[in-house]
Design a protein that fits this description.
The complex is a heterodimer of chains A (284) and B (425). With 284 residues, chain A is mainly alpha-helical. Chain A has 12 helices and no strands. Chain B contains 19 helices and 4 strands. Classes of the chains: A mainly alpha (284), B mainly alpha (425). The interface between A and B is large, with 94 and 91 residues.
Chain lengths: 284, 425
């Protein structure tokens, strides 16, 4: 239905436009809630809605004070640094061992592939509340509940399935003859790994790492249970902010987070195009 | 394979350069490769097992574990073994003496209220009985224990008290699972269900299911048209539209929940707009949040990308010539769509629907923030029992039931799509 054909009947024409209107409405439903918070975060009043001054585009109706509060408030700043520390360390951990496992899983000689894969993927399937409950019980038993280590381990476990999936996906079309070729040309296994395998899987590793990062950065259920006040992250702070004292600072944070996710999405899209281009060259 | 130099050995069998028969050498090389592959997977496997699988197993164990009664009241449990709980008579003096001794130790260790709290899940009143009796038992220096203990609290003179203690003295109990479906074991051993208006857990499970189905249906209704649109547009436009779907997918869950609160609340954007254009009066502001409606709207928005993406990936593979062939053979557009195109999309519908359903059924954050009392899910109840009521056994049992439901649908998903085919973004 790229374009409406000239022989289309009247009902077909009506349906053609009606369908586009429906689709536009659904896209509006998807995007509008993300956009609406941006102007609201500049509200001069502590409300979650548009004030008459804002609607009249009166400069007095707008202010940056919620951003000011975010950057000046030690609670929020602590949350920002916690979020980054936890996300970065759990990403490093999950990306390293996840990539190794994906390399192993993609080898034709891998035994019990399906069984092992389903166990490794399970943190993604099990509802977060159950993972959180189990980790809460067990981590308190071994004494790492309420520590950075506990939250990092928990988030790394949640992030690994994404790394395994994205890296195995890039390895699906991997030509094992490349390794044989490198070996027969005299390259040692280590050299083969860094010169042949790594460049080919890098896009998958990076997008897996981005998934792992955002999983940890956005995660709130597990951190609520496994963490304590010392591990409060941005989502934790937002969660308790919404429940207790709702202030437009949350909207300012939400706007900033939306910018971060747009950046991430943009870099992933670039990666995807790069992979496609590489694949395209290989196929010719 | 490292041994490449093949020559013929003296016996005529093919041997490798080092004189080994080729078969043996090959088997060894294959084994080495298998072990190497396993070694690569091992670190992650061990890590996931320790940080994830064992905690889940630990939780499942907790849902049947009941060592606390025997731990705190060891003498009593031993003494009660010889008592027939169906005799209708109180246990003998020895049991009472054991109980007083146990209570003294428990009081000293401050564990008497713990066992009371545990037994209180089975019969209300046990918590205060144990808390009060701990203090009084210390003052009982000598027999007759039976008389003095009953004097301290007349509940000790009730057969049912002892029946409950005996019933919950084994190390394993089905009690939490029974409680998770609003049933309990009566002292005579039969299973009794709560009245339907008190059956809070069954009600929550049913509500979670109904709301997850509702969310699955709304995401399908909204997701199908846009997936179709994206799949049938030229690459330039479809890439742009896909980004519009991925943007909410990548935005923080809490950001999206926050924006729905801003939109839906009583003094929120939508209500303000409706009042402004005069559709509703100032007093007639719609209650769209902190109830089931709010939860369904917000979760539909949050889970919509999980429906669109599998649908799109299936629709992309359906050749547009199918529809053209159908219409050129004389079918009207609608039957052509319904009879030719739609059946081809069923795998995508199945994958998307199961994915959305699995995600919806275990949701916690959004129902907690926008669900109010009529929009809470079973997961909110689990969190409540862990963080507030501290009935961890019941939380674990509820979690196990939820996990079992999710696993059934996961296996279904595996059958239809295959976990190997799972794609992201």
């Amino acid at each position: 239905m790229a374009a409406i054909p000239p022989y289309a009947s009247m009902p077909e024409r009506i349906w053609y436009y009606a369908f586009r209107v429906i689709c536009a409405a659904v896209f509006f439903f998807l995007i509008f809630p993300l956009m609406v918070i941006v102007p609201l975060s500049f509200n001069a009043e502590p409300f979650f809605t548009f004030t008459p001054e804002m609607l009249a585009f009166d400069p007095a109706g707008y202010s940056l004070k919620w951003y000011d509060d975010f950057f000046g408030n030690p609670n929020w700043q602590g949350a920002v640094s916690n979020s980054f520390v936890i996300a970065i360390f759990s990403t490093i951990l999950s990306t390293t061992i996840g990539t190794l496992a994906a390399l192993g899983l993609s080898r034709p000689s891998m035994p019990y592939r399906t069984l092992i894969m389903s166990i490794l993927i399970s943190p993604m399937i099990v509802p977060l509340i159950i993972s959180a409950a189990g980790m809460y019980f067990f981590y308190s038993r071994i004494g790492i509940q309420g520590t950075h280590l506990g939250v990092i381990l928990a988030h790394a476990a949640l992030g690994t399935p994404f790394v395994v999936i994205t890296v195995t996906a890039t390895l699906v079309g991997f030509d094992n003859n490349l390794i044989r070729a490198a070996n027969s040309l005299g390259a040692a296994p280590v050299r083969t790994f860094f010169k042949v395998i790594v460049p080919l899987i890098t896009p998958g590793v990076i997008s897996g790492a981005l998934f792992a990062f955002i999983t940890s950065f956005d995660e709130v259920v597990v951190v609520l249970f496994v963490g304590s006040v010392d591990q409060r992250t941005i989502p934790w702070q937002m969660f308790s902010g919404i429940r207790e004292n709702i202030s437009p600072t949350i909207l300012a944070v939400a706007t900033l987070l939306t910018l971060v996710s747009m950046l991430l999405l943009f870099s992933l899209e670039l990666l995807r195009r790069r992979t496609e281009r590489l694949r395209g060259i290989k196929n010719t | 394979m490292t041994a490449t130099d093949i020559q013929n050995g003296p016996t005529g069998a093919i041997v490798t350069a080092d004189g080994q028969p080729l078969k043996v050498s090959l088997a060894r090389a294959l084994r080495r490769q298998r072990l190497f592959a396993l070694a690569l997977v091992a670190p992650l496997f061990i890590f996931v097992t320790i940080s994830f699988i064992i905690p889940i197993a630990d939780m499942l164990f907790r849902s049947v574990e009941n060592s606390i009664v025997e731990e705190i009241l060891p003498e009593t449990v031993k003494a009660l073994e010889s008592w027939d709980e169906n005799s209708g008579e109180l246990p003998d003096e020895a049991v009472f003496a054991a109980m007083v001794a146990d209570l003294k130790v428990a009081k000293a260790n401050r564990t008497n209220s713990k066992v009371g709290q545990r037994l209180n899940y089975e019969r209300s009143g046990m918590s205060s009985l144990f808390r009060g009796s701990g203090r009084k038992a210390v003052r009982i220096k000598e027999g007759p224990y039976k008389e003095k203990l009953i004097k301290a609290d007349k509940d000790w003179g009730k057969v049912v008290t002892w029946q409950v203690i005996k019933q919950f003295s084994p190390n394993l109990t089905p009690g939490y699972y029974l409680a998770s479906v609003d049933a309990m074991q009566t002292p005579d051993g039969s299973i009794q269900f709560e009245d339907s208006e008190k059956a809070i857990h069954t009600k929550l499970f049913v509500r979670t299911m109904i709301m997850s189905v509702a969310i699955t249906i709304t995401t399908l209704l909204l997701g199908f048209p846009i997936a179709y649109l994206i799949a049938t547009q030229p690459a330039k436009i479809s890439n742009l539209l896909i980004i519009l779907v991925l943007l909410p997918f990548w935005t923080s869950l809490l950001v999206r929940t926050t924006s729905w609160i801003a939109l839906l609340q009583q003094k929120g954007v939508i209500n303000d707009f409706l009042v402004l254009v005069g559709l509703i009066s100032e007093d007639g502001r719609l209650a769209m949040i902190h109830n089931a409606t709010g939860a369904v709207i917000a979760m539909t928005h949050i889970l919509l990308p999980f429906m669109v993406l599998p649908l799109y990936s299936v629709m992309k593979t359906i050749p547009p010539t199918y529809m053209r062939a159908a219409t050129s053979l004389g079918a009207h557009p609608w039957p052509a769509f319904w009879k030719v195109y739609f059946p081809n999309t069923v795998p995508g519908i199945g994958a998307g629907a199961i994915l959305v359903f699995i995600l919806a059924i275990g949701y916690y954050i959004t129902p907690e923030l926008v669900g109010g009392t009529s929009g809470t899910f079973i997961s909110n109840r689990i969190a409540f029992h862990i963080l507030n009521s501290l009935n961890w056994g019941l939380a674990a049992a509820l979690g196990a039931v939820l996990l079992a439901i999710v696993m059934v649908f996961y296996l279904l998903y595996d059958r239809i799509v295959g976990i190997d085919n799972m794609k992201l973004g």
